[in-house]
Amino acid sequence: MNLRSRRLVRPARTLAGVGLAATLLATVAGSAGYAADGRPRPVDVPAVLRPPAGQVLSADFAAAGVQVYGCADGAWTFTEPAANLLGWVRRRPGAATAVHFRGPSWESTDDGSLVEATVVASSPVPGSVPELLLRATRNRGDGVFGRVGYVQRLHARGGTAPTGSCPAGATTGVPYRAEYRFYVPAGS
């Protein structure tokens, strides 16, 4: 392969990656929270799920994964989330990626920054895990999650615990999708 053909291949891969990211983002989030250009659009959420005044949207991710449940005393109990996230970060070109796991925690796979949070408000969604407002309890790094103060889980679909009894020690993952919005103090 000569230098000229390398130059042609790289942009094609980059463009294909961006196209794939946009397709995945549209598939995961549906039309719920994204405009045609892939950026988050304003959404109407219950007042209890709104971050305090002075917080601005810094990143928005569509999540696809599972809510993991374990069997304790014959009943399914929540253990942890496990999801891949794809989305948009303010002032950064291209798609961003992250993972969501026990804590609850979100870690950028692009820059290694992390935010852990605790639930401060919940709003039920029939047949799905609830929508949430979470407050950051710990941040790491200077990247996308380094200054996050609040997180919203919106447009939740699926992920509820199985019904009925279960054998001791069993675990199961229940598929879910959601949109996670991350907020930082204004001026950050």
Automatic annotation (TrEMBL):
Residues 1-35 form the signal peptide. The keyword Signal applies. The keyword Signal applies. This is DUF3455 domain-containing protein. InterPro entries: DUF3455. Keywords: Signal.
